[in-house]
Amino acid sequence: MKRVFTSPFLWLGVAFFVVLAAWPMATNDPTLREDLFLILMFITMALSLNIILGFTGYVNFGHIVFFGLGGYMGIYVMSILHWGLFTAMLVGGISASVLAFILGAIILRLRGAYFALATIGINEMMLAFVSNFKPFGSGIGLSLDFGVYKAYGGAGKALWLSFILLAIAALLAFIITFVLKKSKFGLGLMVIREDEDAAMVMGIPTPTFKNLAYTLSAFLPGVVGVLYFFKNGNIEPGEAFNLEMSIEVLVMIMLGGFGTVSGPVIGAALYEEIRSWLIVNPLLQSMHLVVAGILLLAIILFVPIGVVGWIRQRLPLVRRYLE
Amino acid sequence: MRKLLFVLLVVVMVVPLAACGGKATPTKAPVATKAPVATKAPAPAVKTLTIGFTASETGKYNVESTGQELGLKLWAKRVNGAGGLKLNDGNTYKIALKSYDDESKKERVQQLYTRLINDDKVDLLVSPYSSGLTDAAAVIAEQYKKIMVTTGAASDATYKKGYAHVFQLYTPASRYLTSVLDLLKAKDPSAKKVAIVYEKSKFATAVAVGAKAYAEKNGFNVVMYEGYDSGTSDFGPFINKIAANKPDAIIGGGHYQDGSTFSKQLYEKKVPVKLVGILVAPSSPKFAELGDAAVGITAPAQWAAGANYSPETAKAAGFEWFGPSSGEIIKAFAGAGVKEPSYQAVGGYAAGLILEKALLTAGSPEVAKVKKALEDMKIMIFYGSYNVDTSAGAHGLQIAHDMVVIQWQKVSGKLQKVIVWPEAAKTHSAIYPLR
């Protein structure tokens, strides 16, 4: 474990996140903060999905369920019970993990396409449930009063606070992923990914490992959901359980390199950067989705192992610094 | 070698950061808010007033939102074509519009409104299309104390959160179907039984909640209040329950597909009812494809071509008249290649018109003055009336604008939409009772 914490890659990554968080604060640039908020959000989502997708090999289309449920639980306790943001973040994270634990016990018995289909079904099930659940505002959703932000020094400071908290969540996701990859537990997950039957024969308690990975992967999306909807001031079913966002996060992982630590970070940052740049580019802004689509298609067709996978394959000496 | 690789890796990790930094650097100042002042003292300065907004060029709101954007563009074209806005501060202001594509996604809205305010330095804001996107934009507008006129955003909740700089143009969702109930009351004071059947979406649920409260307050008996899931195509169970309750009127619906299917099945099963009011679907020209099933179906609309709002109706209602007539607006849209503008598209024009009047009253683009003008404003334009609540609990909520009620009728043997309510706007009498 000591070797894990002396790894240059880990500290390089920590420095990356610190610089990313400090930059808009040092320059006092709210536009940069908003751009980076989305990048950090997608990085956290991608890193957490990578635990079950990249390490364990289970394709999960329903990762957004944890983001949505966490968001709903957090906004509920803030708007109805008048709890603070920090408690709401914990509630969001824990409830997402509890749901994952219960669901995992059932659906992780499935493999391959069956598991992937079940995760889509869960997303639709949650969408239907929340749309009919009165305490969550049914189809209308829940709203936060503008006065809520006063407790954090006003809306301006509350937006900065949510950015800082998100940066911490992203850093946590990075450290967890790295430590996981270097641990025996992580190794067990990767064995499951390569050959689950062989893993069982070798004595790895595969159901427990898979469920733990699934539960772990759900916590941070729950926290991010609270921060995102706190910042927006309202939550509604369609936005909270948006399957499209799940797929986008999946593409980010594929772009960066699945099963790696830096892959989801680079994939999420690249994907979001390309999209953001195209949106505000006067020449390409009406064509941005077309350009982004072609670019992604090209990368996935010609570099299927992702950017990080490609670099690691071509430059063996880099491997120590690019996990 | 290892050191070299380490340096290379640092460079690779920093590239995304550099890209972000590049974006943050102010590029071209797109807005010349402080244009060069004329050298000769007596000549008034010509300045640029920039209005910022996001439009959903892509995504699920594309049609409505780009229509709204076109409306705003046509308004700006008219103002600039007339030489700009001459305000009491001695300056003439040309209108510039600055917009980005929000992809119909909430996560883009806050990012782009922050950019509009901080980088593009816009003076005033107009909302994106839809209540959900507007909710996200309103947090940013309020944080920077920027005036935002909302159009395409009917949800009441947005204006009950304590905002002081957000002003609504549309009739709120809670009053969407109340005009249909007013029509029922005016046509037949003895009609008391109402069935509300609505789609369980955010918008339709908010409308149904408001309609139920209004019906009960006005002495109607809500004999049925049922929601159906989005995508429902078989309304048989609902129709059987409606028939058992024998209501005088059926109101509800949600979006186009379910609304048109519901109307068709009501006709096929010959449900005996005096009035049917359905959201959204009957406002579309496509609704005519239902043929005889469309006849007599009413729908609320924020505006419809032919609405008779005029200086005379304004005077009769105690409002000040402002701006061009409906005919001129339709002509402007026709000039842009749109023969039948939707109420969302025309709403974009109306939002510009409200800002124009506020600026003229305020005499300068100063936020406090424009805010006061929007709070005190009580006018009627081609789109209907404008007057907002100024109480702390519902600041900016529209209280004067009424929905027009359209009905499909056969005029000279041809199926067409006519306006049957309110009195100030109607072009035809409503078919009543329906069956």
Question: Which consecutive residue ranges of chain B, at least 5 long each, have pLDDT under 50?
Answer: 1-38
Q: What global shape of chain A is seen? A: globular
User: Number of DSSP helices of chain A?
Assistant: 15
CATH homologous superfamily grouping of the largest domain in chain B: Response regulator
Known CATH architecture of the largest domain in chain B: 3-Layer(aba) Sandwich
Amino-to-carboxy terminus distance of chain A: 16 Å
Write the CATH fold name of the largest domain in chain B. Rossmann fold
Strand order of the largest sheet of chain A: 1-2
Largest interface: A-B, 64 and 53 residues
Largest sheet geometry of chain B: 7 strands, mixed
**Oligomer, anyone?**
heterodimer
The percent range for strand residues of chain B is 15-25%
Class by SSE composition of chain B: alpha/beta
Radius of gyration of chain A, in angstroms, nearest whole number: 19 Å
Overall pLDDT of chain B: 87
Structure classification of chain A:
mainly alpha
**How many domains of chain B?**
2
Write a brief caption for the model.
The complex is a heterodimer of chains A (323) and B (435). Chain A has helices spanning 2-5, 8-27, 30-55, 64-79, 85-107, 112-132, 155-182, 184-194, 196-201, 206-232, 237-240, 243-256, 262-280, 288-302, 306-314, and strands at residues 142-143, 234-235.
